[in-house]
Give the backbone structure.
Amino acid sequence: MHSTPEPNANLPPNDSIQTCLLRTRGVLTNAGVESPEHEAALLLQQVTGQSLTHLLCQLQRAPAATELAELERLLSRRLSREPLQYILGCATFYGRDFYVDSRVLIPRPETELLVEQFAGLFSGLSRNAEQLRVIDVGTGSGALAITLACESPELEIEATDTSREALQVAAANCVRHGVRERVRLVQGDLLSGFRRGFAAVVANLPYVPSGEFAELSPEVRVYEPKLALDGGPDGLREVRRVIDQAPEALVCNGWLLLEVGEGQSGPVETLMRQAGCWTDVKTVCDLAGVGRVVLGRHSGTDSQPSSL
Ligand SMILES: C[S@@+](CC[C@H](N)C(=O)[O-])C[C@H]1O[C@@H](n2cnc3c(N)ncnc32)[C@H](O)[C@@H]1O
């Protein structure tokens, strides 16, 4: 005769927040998600509307039926490999939260290097409190343009994108971070329409070679906008074009800062050197040692109206 098993004192009571956390973590682990514990905690925070600290104080409470239903819904989206940031509607970049959904690329930590390099070049100038005009080409969620505006109050930024949908997201983020007055959103192809007067052009343009697109993770390949990723046969289609166009937009001695993919910094440096109008061309590596930002100074001509 079988007796009913005793409840295991080491396991949390059924249907507690703690059970939900453990179960969610287990499901994510089995699905091969990279950080199952972290993601489980974020999903539980999302459905309960609680911070992690509050959640940890409520581990023994029974979740509401609505919370359980919402958890199932979000978990099934994640199991279909939708990125967590789209599910939560939030991505963190340079310490700030940005609204994101499938209309925009999720801002990546490596792009923070562009912010740091920009700050290194312009921190001396900003002490003069003069207005500096900057263009962020291919702004997507606006993370880069908005971060620069938040970090440097003297900047006036034009943020461009071909995607009207992306600019809607960027507009929401400008409002969220209180920089609507200093970040002007412009729909257009790269730098077309911009003439002279800009101290810097920063760009994180699509740079995945078309042939490598199929190798991207489903999170990226299926859910993120192809327009934000596919850089043509060698990945440099848009980068090449912006190197051609930037001299028209920059003041003499103005800077071009480009994020590039692994193995692309050499070819991009060569493109800039061959153009004959860039000096101080160099590559800066990210924390993984990948050449990530290529930058150069426009050597300009005497006919240009202003210089740095
Ligand atoms: C790699 S995403 C970068 C988004 C954002 N700057 C970031 O770092 O998170 C590239 C962006 O460039 C935009 N884009 C692609 N081709 C473009 C073009 N020819 N002119 C302007 N924007 C373009 C895409 O719509 C996308 O938003």
Observations:
- Residues 65-79 form the longest helix (15 residues).
